[in-house]
Design a protein that fits this description.
Helix content is about 30%, strand content about 25%. It has helices at about 20-30, 50-60, 85-90, 100-105, 125-135, 165-175, 190-200, 235-245, 260-270, 305-315, 335-340, 370-380, 395-400, 400-410; strands at about 5, 15, 40, 65, 70-75, 85, 110, 135-140, 145-150, 155-160, 180-185, 205, 215, 225-230, 250-255, 275, 280-285, 295, 320-325, 345-350, 350-355, 365, 385-390, 410-415. The protein has a 4-stranded mixed beta sheet. Bound molecules: uridine-diphosphate-N-acetylglucosamine and phosphoenolpyruvate (PEP). The site of uridine-diphosphate-N-acetylglucosamine has 21 residues, from helix 1, helix 5 and helix 6. One of its GO terms (biological process) is cell wall organization.
Length: about 425
Amino acid sequence: MDKLLLRGNGPLRGELRISGAKNAALPCLAATILAQEPVRLHNIPHLRDITTTLQLLSTLGARVMVDGHLGIEVDPRPIHSLVAPYDLVKTMRASILVLGPLLARYGAAEVSLPGGCAIGSRPVNLHLSGLAALGADIVLEDGFVKARAGRLRGAHIVLELVSVTATENILMAATMAEGETVIENAAREPEVVDLARCLRAMGAQIQGEGTSVIRVRGVKALHGAEHTVLPDRIETGTYLVATAMTGGEVFLRRTDPGLLESVLLKLREAGAEIWTDGDGIRIRMRQRPQAVDVRTAPYPAFPTDMQAQFMAMNAIAKGSGVITETIFENRFMHVSELQRLGADISSDGKTAVVRGVERLHGAPVMATDLRASACLVLAGLVAEGETLIDRIYHLDRGYEVIEEKLSVLGADIQRVRASRSVA
Ligand SMILES: CC(=O)N[C@H]1[C@@H](OP(=O)(O)OP(=O)(O)OC[C@H]2O[C@@H](n3ccc(=O)[nH]c3=O)[C@H](O)[C@@H]2O)O[C@H](CO)[C@@H](O)[C@@H]1O
Ligand SMILES: C=C(OP(=O)(O)O)C(=O)O
């Protein structure tokens, strides 16, 4: 297994291009199943989760063409299998997103239940009850969700809690249902909005995305389209925190400051100077960060996918900050790894109190999930001595060439390939 080796190397400086959003690219790729013609997607990040999704689409029979550096064309016409097998689904929870489209377009689907993930139990009951409300017969058998339906029928669905991918699954299915579907308590995340735009380009009739009530008038068929995926707000936020922690100055381009206002607010509170300009963000940090309190909640509040990174920043900040995680019940796995680097953190249930220390010290650590991995990279950027991060396959699910991007900014970071020993 590859590892990352970091040595604290002072402030990050320079300019970076932000990639397309993983969490928007994944549902848009699933949405291609609905079309009757090829769909071209642009600004697709080069990530392991994307490769897995493309493999899944190919397994179903779709023809996938990688078109230049960041473009992908999916031709769904040859789809002949409606089974998403365990081998692919176990590595990526978002594979459940093919359920709604397969059901709506082909009237049946068998999708392996996504494997458990380190950040919590992550059930899919809301996906299933939403699709059942649209008329699907669903059974759980042999570890698979097996669903069947004639033409789906529009319904009034009130989600019990805000779920991003459940909103997306139901939204995709509803585009081809007969009549109107209303999704109440829908997720308002920008990635849901991006999916709605992609579906609208394919001919879907959708209103209200970005609010908590989405209305969909079903159509008989969806056509081919082109869509450019929005920038990754979590990648953006991660590089902003990296710059703040190292006391550097960095300009991020091809991003959208409007997507991460809650994060920018907290960075300013920590002492960062931030300038936004259309699709760019400049950040400068001229002092040791001030610890901040953070409470995660659905968009537009502070994102759970940025929680671990802010914990790393608080670990070296002046004062202490309280981090409250309200979305996932087990998203503090990075606490014990940060403690190995010398962080002073106590956690109890949903809350962690982080008392900033002057300095972290490098040590071998283990990544436990995607954003936990990112937080260890951030800690390694400022730790004294060497930090060796194991199990970075998590990181490769969601950060495009992170070691190259950080190296460009002056970080001392290298990938240690599995076959080579550490010098
Ligand atoms: C691929 C993708 O877009 N992943 C994102 C998505 O995950 P994902 O869509 O899986 O997360 P959800 O929004 O569904 O999770 C929110 C909460 O709802 C619960 N829940 C969800 C579905 C369900 O059927 N039943 C249920 O109880 C979850 O356990 C969690 O406690 O949103 C999360 C919350 O912003 C992000 O951290 C993930 O990066
Ligand atoms: C938790 C995440 O992704 P996923 O939902 O795909 O596991 C994430 O992007 O931080």
